[in-house]
Amino acid sequence: MRYLLLTLLFIARLSLAQNKFDANIAAFAATDKQTPPPAHPIVFTGSSSIVNWGSLVQDFPGKPVLNRGFGGSELSDVRYFADRVILAYSPKQVVIYAGENDIANDHSAQETCQRLVDLFTYLRSHRPKLPIDFISIKLSPSRRKYWPVVQEANTLIKNYLAKQKNARFIDIRPAMNDASGHLLGSIFRPDSLHMNPSGYALWVPVVKPYLR
């Protein structure tokens, strides 16, 4: 009975995810028809930190980057839509930023890591040699109470990826700190959650060496 209830809850969660993000996924399809994406791109996907990276193409000239982030998404949502936002493009590489919303919605570090494992396993079941990189979950001032969980999740994910082939953990956290090791408040928008262009400018030199 417990297994049945968990299964039903999982199905309900997937249905909710589908309804919540239908417009985003439809917009990607419409964009692809108007402007065909590059062949075998480097797909950046995940939550709003990817969505808001408006300078992504300009930041990595010569690289076939494709932004397929959808705001508010959790790792489970990226897994649910993986066929349409990742695998459909036959990518040469995938760069993921997600997990922050999972934690803000009260999922533990272990659950967040497991969601990444589920996504990773699914992608590799279709593309065994697909390079998969994960950008560390950032510390957001407005979500300070979650920082210990974020740090633990990052450690678990880093350790998991270290055991996988063609998989890397991109740690952007040090670049977001000042000389004293404190998080730079100036790189965030007034909501203290989303980054402004100055924040992304700090990410670029960290992420760039990982792109294939």
UniProtKB/TrEMBL annotation:
The keyword Signal is assigned to this record: yes
Endpoints of the signal sequence: 1-17
Record GO terms (molecular function): phosphatidylcholine lysophospholipase activity
Keyword Electron transport: no
Protein name: SGNH hydrolase-type esterase domain-containing protein
Residue span, SGNH hydrolase-type esterase domain: 46-202
Pfam family, one: Lipase_GDSL_2
Alphabetically ordered keywords of this record: Signal
InterPro entries hit by this protein: Ester_Hydrolysis_Enzymes (IPR051532), SGNH_hydro (IPR013830), SGNH_hydro_sf (IPR036514)
PANTHER family, alphabetized: SGNH HYDROLASE-TYPE ESTERASE DOMAIN-CONTAINING PROTEIN, THIOESTERASE 1/PROTEASE 1/LYSOPHOSPHOLIPASE L1
